[in-house]
């Protein structure tokens, strides 16, 4: 009987057919149509020069981000300010220092959270699409309604970010791997004195987080 073996082959053949039918339903994730782009994590260390605009109040800032060092520093120069620069020095143990050397004034704040992780934007980021930002073709995300973040489609570098308060930072240069020398991170001694007008006020909670140029408590 020539036909006898056919029923024995059938299960194998139908399994193969089933497998072939399922293949087009499981494409690689990267090829999935309509998958939103995700924000590029920050490099562990960088130096960025920023122009900041807070409702017309302009400043130039150097941002030194140092994730392995657990620290983040903004050195800010307000337009035509006689007492520049102003420092916003944030540490991963949750302490921030805000000081103006020209006036020997310092405040500290216990923010309660560490500095932003390199991938801080990724969890919970909502993709808004592609937009032009000053001539740069950008992917745009928002997070928790607190920040809108523009990243260059081609270079993956941040171009600008806007906080819900209206504070806008434009990235003028972005130097990957640049590290500020240790001595420049040291908060001045008047941040640690107990008396006089320079005394540091430590407070719990997020009360001073809005002074940070990146309000990490909400991101
Ligand atoms: C801009 O804001 C800073 C910080 O609040 C302030 O010290 C500075 O005086 C402001 N500049 C002008 C021109 O108002
Ligand atoms: C955080 O670290 C800095 C630098 O080591 C230190 O001066 C500060 O007191 C620390 N803050 C806390 C709450 O441990």
Distinctive features:
1 helix, outer membrane lipoprotein receptor (LolB), chain A, mainly beta, eleven-stranded antiparallel sheet, 219 residues, binds 2-acetamido-2-deoxy-beta-D-glucopyranose, disordered N terminus, single chain
List of distinct ligands in this structure: 2-acetamido-2-deoxy-beta-D-glucopyranose
> What does the radius of gyration come to?
26 Å
> Which class of the domain at 45-116 and 166-218 in CATH terms?
Mainly Beta
Mean pLDDT: 83
Instruction: Give the proportion of residues in helices.
Output: under 10%
CATH topology of the domain at 45-116 and 166-218: outer membrane lipoprotein receptor (LolB), chain A
Please report the total strand number as a whole number.
11
Strand order of the largest sheet: 6-5-4-3-2-1-11-10-9-8-7
* Total of helices: 1
For the largest beta-sheet, the strand count, sense and barrel status come to: 11 strands, antiparallel
Strand portion: 35-45%
Structural class: mainly beta
Order of helices and strands, N to C?
Answer: HEEEEEEEEEEE
Q: N-to-C terminal Cα separation, in Å? A: 74 Å
General shape: globular
CATH architecture of the domain at 45-116 and 166-218: Clam
User: For this structure, what is the CATH homologous superfamily of the domain at 45-116 and 166-218?
Assistant: Lipoprotein localisation LolA/LolB/LppX
Low-confidence stretches: 1-14, 16-31, 195-208
């Amino acid at each position: 009987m020539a036909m006898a073996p056919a029923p024995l082959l059938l299960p194998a053949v139908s399994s193969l057919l089933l497998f072939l039918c399922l293949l087009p339903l499981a494409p690689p994730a990267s090829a999935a149509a309509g998958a939103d782009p995700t924000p590029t994590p920050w490099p562990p260390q960088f130096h960025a020069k920023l122009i900041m605009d807070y409702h017309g109040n302009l400043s130039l800032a150097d941002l030194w981000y140092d994730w392995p060092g657990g620290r983040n520093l903004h050195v800010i120069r307000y337009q035509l300010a006689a007492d520049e620069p102003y420092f916003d020095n944030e540490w991963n143990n949750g302490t921030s220092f805000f000081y103006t050397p020209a006036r020997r004034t310092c405040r500290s704040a216990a923010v309660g959270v560490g500095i932003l992780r390199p991938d801080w934007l990724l969890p919970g980021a909502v993709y808004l699409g592609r937009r032009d930002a000053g001539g740069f073709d950008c992917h745009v995300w928002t997070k928790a309604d607190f920040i809108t973040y523009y990243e260059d489609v081609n270079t993956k570098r941040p171009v600008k970010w806007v906080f819900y308060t209206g504070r806008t930072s434009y990235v003028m240069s972005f130097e990957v791997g640049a590290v500020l020398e240790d001595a420049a991170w040291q908060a001045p001694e008047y941040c640690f004195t107990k008396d006089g007008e320079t005394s540091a006020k430590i407070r719990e909670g997020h009360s001073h987080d809005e002074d940070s140029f990146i309000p990490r408590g909400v991101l």
